[in-house]
Amino acid sequence: MTRARPPLVEARGITKRYGPTVALLDTDLAVEAGASHALVGRNGAGKSTLVSVLTGLTRPERGTVRYDGEPAPPLADRAAWRRRVACVYQRSTVVGELSVAENLFLGRQPVTPRGRVISRRLMRRRARALLDEWGVPVDETARAGGLSVEDTKLVEIARALSRGTRLIVLDEPTAQLDSRAAGRLFAHMRRLEEAGVTFLYISHHLREVYEVCQVVTVLRDARRIVTAPVGEMPPGKLIEAMTGGRGGPPAPPAERPRPAGPAPAAVRLEHLSSPRFHDISLTVGAGEVVGLAGLAGSGSHQLGAALAGLHRTTGGRAWIFGRPLRTGSVPAALAAGVGCLPRDRHHEGLVAGLSVAENITMPISGRLGPLGLISPRARDAVARRAIADLDIGTRGPAEPLSRLSGGNQQKVVLARALATDPRVLVLIDPTAGVDVRAKQTLLAAALRARAEGRAVLVVSDQLEDLRVCDRVLVMFNGFVSAEYPAGWRDADLLAAVEGVTPGHG
Amino acid sequence: MGDPAASPAGPARRAALFRVRDLALLPAVVLLVVVGAVTDHTFLERDNLINILGASSALGLLVLAEAMILLSGRMDLSLESVAGLAPALGFLVVMPAASGGFGTLWPAWLGLLIIPVAGACVGAVNAALIVGLGLNGFIVTLAMNIVLRGLLIGLVSGRTLFDAPAAFFALGSDTWLGLPLCVWLTAGCFAVAGFCLRYHRFGRAVYAVGGNAPAARAAGIRVARVGWAVLVVGGALSAVAGLVIAGRVGAVNADQGSGMIFTVFAAAVIGGISLRGGRGSLLGALLGTLLLGMLENLLTLAQVSSFWIQAIYGGIILLALIVARLTTGEAQES
């Protein structure tokens, strides 16, 4: 790589804190023109903060950003930022009901030569020229909302390129794509690279790094760990950089007094299938914590949700303590003894306007008094016990849930899952977006549930969550692809989750 | 009112503070009473107050029905036509053919029973379309409102239905302990519904579904069933409201209830019921009803020209919204 001209973008010594949390610490990043750059790291490593600094959405506390050797424009000058860099986010930013051409020229539509009205003919013609220039095979008159995910990404890229930028940040572009659509997107990206576009590519999927990037930077714990050409970073090395510790000590097996004799199968699945997972057969014993690891598209979340009645299966059978489970019905799952902490607490977890006590007792509202009446005293007693058990930071059972912090809200959702005294506990992404102390409480609750003889299924791709498990099943593309007993090495597990073999390369 | 987060309030005091939002309309109500007392000396007389309560009863029942539906996160615009069509059906099946009835001459109790049943059936049809088929509730009930009004006009064909047994007018004309029966009925309905919404699992499920339906589902609440229940109960209550109107007027004609739905929504919303569901209380809805009932009475007493009464009525609803907004210090829709 020649240093003849300054990098396309260069960030130096970037530091950014959010309250007590350090999001980025003294981080450097330089993207050279023509060398697409991968940015990898676990959740919370600082990737999104770095991107928002690079795109001018966040002002760093310390450090400088330079574009083509010149200082970055002021944050308020959005047009200047748009000429330098554009980010294509996971969620599309096209207006679905408008045509592709209208989306490309949103807010800067070409006008007729004399008048001040929009010339639709001119707009269509310019759109066609733009799409042809970058080889985007999309009809400019098509409704944008009807495009495939990959075509939508290409339209967003073309829109950014038409503003003059040659640096495109892609934030997990393949998160919603199957492998064939992803392959088509990569083919387009390679062609764009040849035409002079440089990508900063953010992804969980390490395989993609090798497909489209020349250089990779690894972030971990808000710091830059390494920057190197991808040829010098085989998957094993990459994963070690992401997790820290060169083949480090195996995860310490927590003290695990296994129950004497064969544990009864609390959960038994046989050939369970749905559109999102296929032919899953597994058992979870009473008093056992089983981890289910997988990326967003692996089907692990849906498998956990299916047990809790939140996802409908299409084939196979499930038993809870020997009794057949009817999937797709939450009341049936609750009756069978399954409690669930759903994936996204804001979506399925909590009713923010209601009180802490009401949220906790929602699944047992029929048991708090005669004839379906709810005795406030009985309700608050249940809530107080849960508040004490899980150390929920609240002023009392009557406080509206919306006033609690994220970690305490999550504890309320866990309390709700435990309210029915379930024999099987399904925890989906239990520690997403919570602070360290809440994380400890939540994981300790999982271990306590095991000690009480419950079966626990932890669905997560966070290593901290999976460390409490007696064994971890890894899901990839809808199938269970590997199983690790406690004591796995981070690198091995992560490689299986990513779908790569750590040894090769 | 102070900032509750800043005050060293214990849980008990905090709980009390939350009720303040239910009473946001109280200043507006008090203001109206003062204005009424000053402008017209008959306003505070016993007969006039009873008159206000009687005149507000039907509106109150409709507001109660709509409030429950709104709290569950849905809406029903067809309630006003239910309040016209359901009592008309009850009248028609008991009236002799000579007075324009069907001539079936069913017994009075059966005719009276038909009224809430018809309302419940309309609610069930709405629920089948909205909850079952997943159609948009606004447009379904708007169309249903027009259909039901059309049916009523067709059935009545320009006549006025009045030749019915006395029982049909009892709610509006008879009194008990000095108050019209319809006032007792409305008060009773508010009390029972208010109690259930606060202390029964079904009532709390209504709030949970309105607040966050996916979370309610994940907690084992049967969301569809709650939707069916509020729409069916709302239809039945509206039918009874129609019977109250018929009793007070002494007849049913083709435009009974027409246009009331706007007043119903206004009363519910200025009473603090969120149009997005999950927030508000029946106490607030009741105050909203009383406010509008007093307003109507006051405008009549003040002999405002009937040509101007609508403009003033609407303007004062806007004013009440502003007062409620300022007293609670929070936006109704945020």
From TrEMBL, chain B:
Topology relative to the membrane: Multi-pass membrane protein
Stretches that traverse the bilayer: 23-43, 49-70, 82-102, 108-131, 138-156, 176-197, 226-246, 258-275, 282-301, 307-326
InterPro entries linked: ABC_transp_permease
Record has Transmembrane as a keyword: yes
Key words, A-Z: Cell membrane, Membrane, Transmembrane, Transmembrane helix
An annotated Gene Ontology molecular function: transmembrane transporter activity
GO CC, any one term: plasma membrane
Subcellular localization(s) per the UniProt record: Cell membrane
Pfam family, one: BPD_transp_2
Protein name: Ribose/xylose/arabinose/galactoside ABC transporter permease
Protein species of origin: Streptomyces sparsogenes DSM 40356
The organism's taxonomic lineage, starting at the top: Bacteria, Bacillati, Actinomycetota, Actinomycetes, Kitasatosporales
